[in-house]
Amino acid sequence: MPYSNYSSNFGPSYKNMDREITNSLMQCPLFNGLQATDIKGILDSIDYKIVNYVAKDVYVLAGMPCKYADIIIEGEMVARMVGLSGKLVQIDHLRQGTLVAPAFIFSKKNAMPVSVETSQPTQILRMMPSELKRLIDTDPQIRMNFILLLSNIDVFLTNKLRILSLFTVREKVAYFLIKAAERQKSRVVTLDKTRQEIADSFGIQKFSLLRCLSEFEDLGAIKIEGKKITILNSDKMKG
């Protein structure tokens, strides 16, 4: 049950909010394999509260401790890492259903390595780590889901490190377009990020991204129409 009153900026009734929370948690990997009734029962058995952030609000700064087990119910947050030189790398977009920083919730050294801010109004379901531990201890499905979550994070970070450290600018841009086409199941890629956000996600300058896209277009590899990029010949991006 909630351990503080709902203080939502979004305005739904208690009953409607309860339904929205359940629907959002069904998208959270921590609750994979569970039905809505199962999740509703879990909500009734734990202490939690709803926390709201406005757009462009700071969720956490790098170096601050990870104090809570937070799940995004609505909205989106962006995780960024800044080097000593001031170079910024966008690590990930955290969307609805995401358990924030699961690898740091129970860590003895739980200082966050990234800064996180909201990109739009965002609503969080917040538990204390002890509540999440109780779920992990008592529910074998949630326990296995949490193990899989940690494993997938390791795979994600290993792949991210490989791209950032070993790929050239050209390879990074080609990788982004090809993966976006695979994800959208279309050779016409609709960008859901700005050019600056795409550049930040690979730790490159915006002008380097634009120059590379222009070169790909000159080669006949792609066709650019605003936020839509059509892949005409992916092989020409690999050369």
Offer a concise description of the structure.
With 239 residues, the protein is an alpha+beta fold. It is built from 9 helices and 10 strands.
Overall geometry: elongated
* Alpha plus pi helix count: 9
How far the N terminus sits from the C terminus, by CA atoms, comes to: 57 Å
**Share of helix, binned:** 40-55%
- Gyration radius (Cα, Å) is 20 Å
Q: Give me the oligomer status.
A: single chain
Structure description:
By secondary structure, the protein is an alpha+beta fold. It has nine helices and ten strands. It is elongated, with a radius of gyration of 20 Å. The chain has helices at 14-25, 36-45, 102-105, 129-138, 140-166, 169-184, 195-201, 206-218, 235-238; strands at 49-53, 58-60, 69-74, 77-82, 88-94, 115-118, 122-127, 188-190, 222-225, 228-231. The strands form three sheets. It has a four-stranded antiparallel sheet with strand order 2-6-4-5. A three-stranded antiparallel sheet has the order 1-7-3. A hairpin with a 5-residue loop joins strand 4 (77-82) and strand 5.
Ordered list of secondary-structure elements with their pairings:
Layout: H1 14-25, H2 36-45, E1 49-53, E2 58-60, E3 69-74, E4 77-82, E5 88-94, H3 102-105, E6 115-118, E7 122-127, H4 129-138, H5 140-166, H6 169-184, E8 188-190, H7 195-201, H8 206-218, E9 222-225, E10 228-231, H9 235-238
Antiparallel strand pairs: 1-7, 2-6, 3-7, 4-5, 4-6, 8-10, 9-10
